[in-house]
């Protein structure tokens, strides 16, 4: 029978990987665990082993090709194996392949993992408080690697596992490398490096008395402050590390949902008058850092255009009751999303990312469109995944759903990651044109002004028409002004003639 | 519904007010659930009324009498007279105080108390028949039911409990006079506790046991220590003999036993106590009505949340399976109440300690050395004999030992077996160690009070580490 082999999930959060080299050719006989390909994740090259003994039947991806995780990359002819549902067997192999891929990279690390896990004889060694916490967080405590004496699982280990940080322990070579890169790439919102906010949880830490006093003042446990320094073989922590960690902790806490209720701002009276001091931290600072990074990394150019949308207004008015009958609230946003995706398909360079390290432009063939939402806590950008595959009402529901979650702060991190292009609707509050800041590392963002009647000249006469002002900011490193203008022209055409969207 | 019934509704219906049921009811009520507790007999269940508490009361009485009478070596000369009726009324006072306390606690926590016998009448409904003629019945509709009906002593054929000649453990705990001679059928923990107690009160006790040793389920050296002491107290053991019949004889009984080979023996005594174990009470609950079927031993299978095969019906304590121990019932009761209230609770106890109140006492928790090896550990064992403990010698109770079992690789404490004075108390430290995932280092480096028995635990741990001070290292 034929056995399909899908590209396994080679690292947390990684959605695709590049096939570097095929180590086998069609017709080759392979044995189980024999490496068949080298796959490059963001930082590591991983060997992908064959799941079976058999013959290579087909190779379905080219060297150098970026392949989404889960795509079949190779098939094998396996003799004497009973026919079974291909899908299932492939899935089974997937899991094995993940483990194999990981073990291929770092067998030594796996041994470490075993030593570090307090699970033996069917028991996981952990205090009842840690076990309860695991249940609270929905963590299988048996899967947590312990950092306590003898490998006992501590509450901190459970929390780390729940936050995904635990992966660094068992599978450092692949997972930590890739997850860090994807975190940075997909979540520009993270200001402080994740590691500095993470508690180190040592048993013993050396520090100068002054540092200890600062730790006390900052309410920080010295054992939790990350450091690479040692004295006499023991971890050594400096004052600045304590302050940095305390700051990171505060930022992390502020980002928590509970922290929405901020402490009352301080006010002070200067010679000129009363000044209110509000801590620049938490989500505000995270947004600030992301904006700063984008503005000073990507040279922004903003292209403006006004588009007449009489037909769009009429179409939406017609369809709104129909949508309501189907329990959907139809705003203009789904139309804009449809039009944007259609325009991106015609001008793919706007759906891209610059991989500065590799000096390569990544043009994305998938369409995850971020829609900026103003929330009490600040700007958030939930992402409508696979916007090209969704119909109008699904898009409407997705946007409404994500926006609600963002406002309620119940949105998951993954739901704000992986965007390829963003839209910001500043017109909802009021305004014509603006300079949207690119949601880095994306390379373009579309700003929508207020949709309202404005004077338009038609056949020499000034008439009132519904128009939308468009502001498209581009990363001028990759996208030229002409590209931007062409994209906006296409987009305008779709918005002017929404029936064209029927063809999309 | 039967005509004349009144019907009420409740979030949580608990059947049985023993240590599993009343704890579940109080906890559920604390968590804001409307809770109804049905009890047909007495608050506190077997534990308070017919088990743990009365037996420990009598054991203390017997110890006091026996201790006083045997303290010549300490220079104390006494000839105590035992007034069994007075001892019983003291014991009853203790029991009454505790059962009254349970009732008060339930009320203070807002638990609705209903007296009567509960029987399932269908999905979500229980009928409670109130005691006595014409007392009527009521139907209670529940969202969640917790079965906590406990267990009853097992009868053996031909030995029906009349509590006159043939005593159950309950009857044995209620005797107004000390029998001169007693035959005890069964050398399990209940048989051994009561044999020792009556031996100390001056009864000539003969134990017949079908198996070939006392305290099956405990390691040989533990069972041997306890049996040896019982023999010193005058208890006579006959192993490999099963009780086959009894007949009245003079004012007492004559018990016939039979070996596997068919050899018979007879033992005459005032009374015969049958203590061959307990079986869960699940046959009177009308479980058919909700489609719930106990296993062949009468137990209800439950998952880690205490839920049975039927949704929203939970079981705790003896009905939920071995070990049949009050503290296990209470622990399960709390978990189930929290589960019903939506708390992240589950029964993931690593070990449930057990105690036997013989002389000397036994306290065990977690794995034995053999069990640890079976589970894939490389066990290391440390031991401290009680005769090396200063406190044990000053108590004049030098028999026994503390043994700790740990994993040699990680040092995790996996279990412990203690036989000796206050073993039931001492085992708590090892239970905590097992539950916490503590290592030998953790326990051994904890400073223990001197002069106490608890030092023996520390010493056993240090012995396992190879650096005991007060004993020779293994």
Automatic annotation (TrEMBL), chain A:
Catalytic class of the enzyme: transferase
Biased composition (Low complexity): 188-199
Protein EC: 2.3.1.-
Keyword Transferase on entry: yes
One of the Pfam families matching this protein, by short name: E3_binding
Residue ranges of domain Lipoyl-binding in the record: 2-77
Keyword Transferase: yes
InterPro entries from the UniProt entry: 2-oxoA_DH_lipoyl-BS, 2-oxoacid_DH_actylTfrase, 2-oxoacid_DH_E2_comp, Biotin_lipoyl, CAT-like_dom_sf, E3-bd_dom_sf, PSBD, Single_hybrid_motif
Cofactor(s) the protein needs: (R)-lipoate
Region (Disordered): 82-126, 141-233, 252-272
MF terms in GO: acyltransferase activity
Start-end of Acidic residues biased regions: 82-99, 217-227, 259-272
PROSITE patterns reported for this sequence: BIOTINYL_LIPOYL, LIPOYL, PSBD
Composition bias type Basic and acidic residues, residue spans: 154-164
Superkingdom: Archaea
Residue ranges occupied by any Peripheral subunit-binding (PSBD) domain in the UniProt entry: 125-162
Keywords carried by this UniProt record: Acyltransferase, Lipoyl, Transferase
Annotated family: Belongs to the 2-oxoacid dehydrogenase family.
Protein name as it appears in the record: Dihydrolipoamide acetyltransferase family protein
Organism of provenance: Halosegnis marinus
UniProtKB/TrEMBL annotation, chain B:
Free-text cofactor note: Binds 1 FAD per subunit.
Protein encoded by which gene: lpdA
Enzyme Commission identifier(s): 1.8.1.4
SUPFAM superfamilies assigned to the protein according to its UniProt record, in alphabetical order: FAD/NAD(P)-binding domain, FAD/NAD-linked reductases, dimerisation (C-terminal) domain
Annotated Pyridine nucleotide-disulphide oxidoreductase dimerisation domain residues: 352-460
Family statement: Belongs to the class-I pyridine nucleotide-disulfide oxidoreductase family.
Keywords: Disulfide bond, FAD, Flavoprotein, NAD, Oxidoreductase, Redox-active center
Catalytic activity: N(6)-[(R)-dihydrolipoyl]-L-lysyl-[protein] + NAD(+) = N(6)-[(R)-lipoyl]-L-lysyl-[protein] + NADH + H(+)
Cofactor(s) this protein requires: FAD
Protein name as catalogued: Dihydrolipoyl dehydrogenase
Every FAD/NAD(P)-binding domain range: 11-333
Miscellaneous comment in the UniProt entry for this protein: The active site is a redox-active disulfide bond.
Domain of life: Archaea
NAD among keywords: yes
InterPro entries with a match to the protein in the record: Class-I_Pyr_Nuc-Dis_Oxidored, FAD/NAD-bd_sf, FAD/NAD-binding_dom, FAD/NAD-linked_Rdtase_dimer_sf, Lipoamide_DH, Pyr_nuc-diS_OxRdtase, Pyr_nucl-diS_OxRdtase_dimer, Pyr_OxRdtase_I_AS
Organism the protein comes from: Halosegnis marinus
GO molecular function: dihydrolipoyl dehydrogenase (NADH) activity
